[in-house]
Design a protein that fits this description.
There is one protein chain. By secondary structure, the protein is of the alpha/beta class. 34% of the residues lie in helices and 25% in strands. The strands form two sheets. It has a six-stranded mixed β-sheet with strand order 6-7-8-3-9-10, sandwiched between helices. Strand 7, helix 7 and strand 8 form a beta-alpha-beta unit. The chain is globular, with a radius of gyration of 18 Å. The relative contact order is 0.19.
């Protein structure tokens, strides 16, 4: 799908909602075959930032942005770039599972392709491949015609991952994908993330410090202090962030002293 040099990169991202400056000068690199965790207290801009990476944030009427997001070296905010195309290449899984309630399991997997008007060749094969990659095929292979809402919460989230994978994305963004799930479902999602990183770039927002250490190769610590915009305090290898941070604020946060 891509060569080993591929990566996603943000350069000096600043975000405003109306007059409020919510993110300041965020520059991060996301290499292929790696998982990057975004950590930090609530309200520091992590979810806002991850939505800038596939132009989801601009769906909010008051949102403004400065800076660049590069995919394969090309700015996704370029004038000639269609945001719909961006969201096909950079998929997203949200905090709460959101399968289409009136569609079957099979229809949900193919829904993104149909909505984008793309031709579907070998639909049955694509459904199976996507569900296998999302680690849910064996649980639903005899239920493909059943409503998506007949699945448990954890299964619905993996179905949403399969729906994104069916689009063939280069990057998968995950905004707290396990926060509403039980420990068993969380473990399966984490196993899926580790398997998927062999073929794509993954960025995950998480409040679970143990989860970040289990799945992420690198971690960015976001913070907003005294009403200032959210910004990155420290960014590096996950092991360094958790066991040898440079900034004392990072050390205090990862050790549970605030946030």
């Amino acid at each position: 799908m891509m060569d080993q040099q591929f990566h996603l990169e943000s350069k000096d991202i600043n975000v405003w909602f109306g007059e409020r400056h919510v993110l300041k000068n965020v520059s991060l690199q996301f290499p292929i075959n790696q998982v990057t965790a975004l950590i930090g207290p609530s309200g520091c801009g992590k979810s806002t930032f991850i939505r800038t990476l596939n132009r989801m944030h601009e769906l909010i009427p008051s949102a403004g942005l400065a800076g660049a997001v590069l995919l394969n070296g090309e700015d996704i905010y370029g004038e000639a770039i269609d945001p719909v195309d961006v969201r096909e290449k950079i998929g997203m899984v949200f905090q709460k599972p959101n399968p289409f309630p009136t569609m079957s399991i099979k229809e949900n997997v193919l829904s993104g392709l149909k909505l984008s008007g793309r031709k579907i060749d070998n639909g049955a094969e694509l459904v199976e491949t996507s569900l296998r990659r999302a680690s849910i095929w064996n649980e639903v292979k005899d239920r493909l015609g059943e409503p998506a809402l007949s699945l448990s919460g954890g299964q619905q989230q993996r179905l949403c991952i399969a729906r994104s994978l069916a689009m063939g994305p280069d990057v998968l963004l995950m905004d707290e994908p396990c926060s509403a799930l039980d420990p068993g479902s969380t473990r399966r999602i984490e196993e899926t993330i580790l398997e998927l990183k062999d073929s794509m770039t993954i960025v995950i927002v998480t409040h679970n410090m143990q989860q970040a250490q289990r799945v992420a190769d690198q971690t960015a610590f976001f913070l907003s202090e005294d009403g200032d915009p959210g910004h990155v305090v420290e960014f590096g290898a996950t092991n360094d962030i958790f066991h040898g941070p440079i900034d004392p604020r990072t050390n205090e946060y990862v050790n549970g002293r605030f946030g």
